[in-house]
Amino acid sequence: MNLVKMVVLAVAVFVMLSSCAVGYSGSTNSTELNVWSVENQPMAEQLAAVFKEMESLKCEQTTLWKQQKALTQMQNTSQEKRAEEEVAGTHVLSYGPMKMNDDEEDLRRRGDPCYHYTILDQAWRATNATTKFKVCDRHSKWKGWYRLFYKGMSLQMPERCVPVDKCGTHSPLWLAGPHPKMKDGIVTRRVCGHWKKNCCAFKSTPIQVKKCKGNYYVYKFTQPSACYLAYCADVNTIVCGRCSRDQTCVSRDKINWRCKRNRRKFSKKIHFFASYPDQLSGKVNRIKYSKVLVNVGRAFNRRTGVFKAPVNGIYQFFFSTQTGRTGAKTDLWLVVNRYWVAVSHTHVSRLSTVGSLSMYMTFLRRGAIVYVTHNCGRSWANSASTTITFGGSLLVQMR
Ligand SMILES: *[C@@H]1O[C@H](CO)[C@@H](O)[C@H](O)[C@H]1NC(C)=O
Ligand SMILES: *[C@@H]1O[C@H](CO)[C@@H](O)[C@H](O)[C@H]1NC(C)=O
Ligand SMILES: *[C@@H]1O[C@H](CO)[C@@H](O)[C@H](O)[C@H]1NC(C)=O
């Protein structure tokens, strides 16, 4: 770092450090700075502090700059992602303009086969059903989308070769390919008919398939290529209809199915709220908020007063105080990675007290350190007042 930069930084830090003495309301005029330097500790001591602060600033500013850049990128990608996920219909916390209103939701549903299908509840279609009379789906008029049921229970087409003479027909039709995922939207799949030891003796007309919210599928059935072919309903997949929203139906052998909990990547919950139950005066480097009221995710350490970000994401913090003592200027600073980012300033000129609350929102990387410093003045609290507080939440988790 060259000398000019150093001086500029030194002045900046100097102003910041002196804000307590001169008041924070923009009065950074040179007269007052002079007054401050005369009134307070020797210059040498102050400069030592300034240079010490600079050292951390030097690297913190690089970090902050990187964070800023990352945040812009995150916002861009998260917006895209959100748009994607909105279409896919998964549950993602969405804020502000991304939320669709009812009209838009209606419009979206209007063309969505997940909301417009015909129920096909025919027990003879079951993979375990053997009937005397055989059906040929070629004789049916197929129109639009269908959802398969077995006696009122939602199920899906088999993804495996079904023995002949099942599903109420000679050659049962099964899906030659995996069911799509939500994000795949509508896909086209080949359909096979089993006959004479050949699982795909009949390569029937391909059909379209879509996965819907609530673990079910809709199929756009068409006339099969020959007789006697019929679409099957796999009774082994009845269990899939009972999977909850945060589960997916899985199977290794396509015979035995079970509900499996989805990997929860972006659902970490972090919330904390703590108070300092006593009075504070003068400089307290790190307030040790010992009375912890909420600590979901255990990211706040009551022993040290430090919050440590457990994941990357956007966090929101708040901190409050109540100042007493006439004439006292009280400054509390929120410190992020040892960088002072937000102040809660009060200056009580008469015989009165004032409460003060400040908030701050930022992107943090995993491992970031956040605490509150009592820079100067007096703060009042007792064990029941909850006046000197510090809290925060993870709003959105990010990669
Ligand atoms: C700045 O200094 C002048 C004297 O030079 C003083 O009159 C004035 O009040 C100061 N400004 C503020 C905002 O304190
Ligand atoms: C974010 O998107 C805007 C336009 O939507 C673009 O101008 C900007 O360059 C993007 N920023 C990054 C970091 O990708
Ligand atoms: C077919 O499976 C269903 C569901 O498991 C069962 O209720 C039914 O009894 C079975 N039918 C035959 C003929 O095995």
TrEMBL record:
GO terms for cellular component: extracellular space. InterPro entries: C1q_dom, Cerebellin_Synaptic_Org, D8C_UMOD/GP2/OIT3-like, Tumour_necrosis_fac-like_dom. The keyword Nucleus does not apply. Pfam families: C1q (PF00386), D8C_UMOD (PF23283). Keywords: Disulfide bond, Secreted, Signal. The keyword Signal applies. Residues 265-399 form the C1q domain. It is found in: Secreted. SMART domains: C1Q. Residues 1-23 form the signal peptide. This is C1q domain-containing protein.
